[in-house]
């Protein structure tokens, strides 16, 4: 097979990149390790920065987004089980956010790919990258028992943390930055009306988050030990813990019900540098991971793809500068999001070795945030997303 850009990974990053390139007349082939059904079954985040919303709209992917997305403009943080800070993001920095699940974005991207006959090869196994420092790199893989090869101009590694793309950069040339957090998030989906506000909570019992997917689908999280499994958490235990961590006024508004999905996710911060090597360019989780506290993972993947698509389009138009600068450009935004997510995670969670002093210091920082419009503006500017 031959194409201009071989894209490894058929999740949001890879399929959005193929869509943006196709809009510019650049061909691509997408390889995905999992089945289409598996990709669409993954439950992921749903808080979109406005820059992400505008990127999807500009790409012609905004129709369903604007119909079903839930626009909101407040960040709410509770602490001590009684205090609540509510920041209006539009009043503060002139930007809103949108609640729209990643699964829906993926459905929209696959529908658009079907409409333009985009070649996406699912269940591609044994994917390997070759000659990435040459002018004609290659990707080999097996599908349906047969071995295939793609010859291309460039390779985009959008295959997540465990994919082969990052590993294709020589180990002695890679520097990896990792911070693992000593707790996870237990999340449930419930077919119940969500709390009307997006709310984070700092509590001596641990962190909690109330969010939404649609008017009849709620998403809730509580901090839990990494040694726990979902079998340790009955629905009754989950609701009891959630209510213990949030103010009574908000707990009274929550309608409980049976969970339809329950999972535990570990938290980590990770960045690998460089994200470009030869003709290989990484985007999304292949290059970086952030804890979900700041709602940055999907939004960072979209910003990477925005920069990479612009760079490849310019390259084919005869201007190599953006592609040469892609790694540095993307990493500036990545490290900003990594720092913000680390700060918010440190502020809102209960750590295993945390002392009463540490808890009071957290609460005092929240008191300062509550009292200072400047501190609120700094937090809000980062939460809703800096300009692309």
Would you mind describing this structure in some detail?
By secondary structure, the protein is an alpha+beta fold. It folds into two domains: 5-66 and 99-178 and 268-345, FAD/NAD(P)-binding domain; 179-267 and 348-384, D-Amino Acid Oxidase, subunit A, domain 2 (D-Amino Acid Oxidase, Chain A, domain 2). The chain contains twelve helices and 20 strands. The strands form four sheets. The chain has an eight-stranded mixed sheet with strand order 6-5-14-15-16-13-17-20. A six-stranded mixed sheet has the order 8-2-1-12-19-18, with helices on one face. Helix 1 packs parallel to helix 6. The longest helix is centred in the last third of the chain and has 28 residues, at 321-348. It is globular and about 60 Å long.
Q: In a nutshell, what does this entry contain?
A:
The protein is an alpha+beta fold and 388 residues long. It has helices at 12-23, 36-41, 50-58, 63-68, 89-93, 102-115, 235-245, 248-251, 297-316, 321-348, 356-371, 373-384, and strands spanning 5-8, 28-31, 47-48, 70-72, 74-79, 83-88, 97-99, 119-121, 125-130, 138-143, 146-151, 154-157, 175-190, 199-202, 208-214, 217-224, 259-273, 276-277, 280-282, 288-289. It has 2 domains: 5-66 and 99-178 and 268-345, FAD/NAD(P)-binding domain, CATH 3.50.50; 179-267 and 348-384, D-Amino Acid Oxidase, Chain A, domain 2 (2-Layer Sandwich).
């Amino acid at each position: 097979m031959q194409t201009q850009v071989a894209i490894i990974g058929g999740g949001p990053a890879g399929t959005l990149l193929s869509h943006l390139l196709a809009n510019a007349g650049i061909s691509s082939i997408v390889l995905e390790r999992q089945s289409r059904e598996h990709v669409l079954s993954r439950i992921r985040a749903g808080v979109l920065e406005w820059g992400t919303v505008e990127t999807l709209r500009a790409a012609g992917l905004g129709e369903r987004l604007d119909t079903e997305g839930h626009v909101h403009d407040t960040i709410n943080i509770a602490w001590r089980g009684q205090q609540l800070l509510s920041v209006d993001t539009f009043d503060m920095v002139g930007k809103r956010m949108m609640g729209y699940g990643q699964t829906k974005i993926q459905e929209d991207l696959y529908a658009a790919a079907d409409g333009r006959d985009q070649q996406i090869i699912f269940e591609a196994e044994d994917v390997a990258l070759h000659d990435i420092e040459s002018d004609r790199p290659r990707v080999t893989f097996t599908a349906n028992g047969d071995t295939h090869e793609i010859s291309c101009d460039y390779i985009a590694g959008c295959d997540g943390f465990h994919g082969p793309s990052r590993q294709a950069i020589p180990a002695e040339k890679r520097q990896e930055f990792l911070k693992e957090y000593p707790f996870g998030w237990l999340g449930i989906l419930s077919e119940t009306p969500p709390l009307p506000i997006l709310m984070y909570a700092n509590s001596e019992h641990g962190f909690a988050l109330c969010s939404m997917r649609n008017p009849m689908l709620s998403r809730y999280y509580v901090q839990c030990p990494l040694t726990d499994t979902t079998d340790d958490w009955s629905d009754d235990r989950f609701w009891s813990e959630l209510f213990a961590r949030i103010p009574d006024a908000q707990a009274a508004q929550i309608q409980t019900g049976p969970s339809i999905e329950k999972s535990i996710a570990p938290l980590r911060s990770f960045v690998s540098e460089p994200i470009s090597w030869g003709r290989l360019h990484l985007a999304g989780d292949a290059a970086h991971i952030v804890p979900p506290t700041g709602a940055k993972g999907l939004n960072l993947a979209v910003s990477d793809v925005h920069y990479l698509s612009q760079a490849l389009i310019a390259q084919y138009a005869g201007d190599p500068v953006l592609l040469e600068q892609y790694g540095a450009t993307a990493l500036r935004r990545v490290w900003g999001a990594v720092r913000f997510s680390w700060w918010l995670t440190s502020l809102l969670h209960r750590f295993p070795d945390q002392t009463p002093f540490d808890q009071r210091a957290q609460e005092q920082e929240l008191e300062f945030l509550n009292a200072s419009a400047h501190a609120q503006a700094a937090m809000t500017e980062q939460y809703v997303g800096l300009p692309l």
